[in-house]
Amino acid sequence: MLSLCRDPYPSRAISEHLLARRHEPVVWSEASARPEWLSAEDEAKFAEQGFLVLPNVLTADEVAELTIAMTQLRDEVTANDSPLVLREQESDDILSFLDLPSASPLFDRLVRHPKLLEFARYILASEVYLHQSRLNYRAANTQEEFYWHSDFETWHTEDGMPAMRALSCSVLLTDNLAEHAPKLLIPGSHKTYVGCVDPATCPVTDDEAAHESHTMGQPSPEILSLLTHQAGEVTSATGLAGSVVFFDCNIQHRSADEASKHPRANAFLVYNSVENMLGTPANGLEPRPEHLAHREQVDPLQDVK
């Protein structure tokens, strides 16, 4: 007999990769609560594809102010060994700065931008708090090795996030067009949960070792091929500076492989429902630090006034 407490979304402590049906809705609210500025067509696109690009969410002045704050932050932390700073392993270039509200008042205001909060509250049908945030920066002429993954697989396994009731958004601080090597997504992949084998228990073939190492939370090539076939194509999340890419917590995404002569920067924000508080991580893992997964700073966010 199956246990009633069986995890519907197991990962890593499993013997083979698996596909599981998503149990939660993508859009939690009724259509009658939809913000006036969000069209029914855009909502349907988000529900079907798992992401939506909204242009001109930030004004040119707001982008300019945030760009100055980003430059100052990068200059300040260049020689910093803080755990809030993530670096490229080979070049030591700064990749990310974690916990944006602590970085500057401007980023704290961005987290509480009325349009971001309104969209998050509508999609999740509740008040929200900030689960995680970071400033991502990709310098010109660099390659970023970031594998296909679902954020929810990480948050569920490593943070104990119970359900798919979180929303991610990428606020574009620079243009993210085809020539900028933008993020890639598999449309519709958010409808299926992918449980992944711990790479430490997964033998690597010679062909796999020659092309790509197994990484924690990475779906198998067979599952990625199936999801891509179902989608029909892999899509780039493109937009001009000031645009926002909203995407479901379970969509498969990665960074483009090729280098670009243009730098790319975005503020990555994750809103979690206050009804979806973190529990115990899976597989006996210890909770991650507060700057990676908030457990204490979980007050509902208030709009900027």
Automatic annotation (TrEMBL):
Stored InterPro entries: Phytyl_CoA_dOase-like
Residue segments, region Disordered: 280-305
Keywords carried by this UniProt record: Dioxygenase, Oxidoreductase
GO MF: dioxygenase activity
Taxonomy, superkingdom: Bacteria
Cofactor: Fe(2+)
Pfam families cross-referenced by the UniProt entry: PhyH
Amino acid composition bias (Basic and acidic residues), ranges on this chain: 287-305
Name of the protein: Phytanoyl-CoA dioxygenase family protein
Species this protein is from: Paraperlucidibaca wandonensis
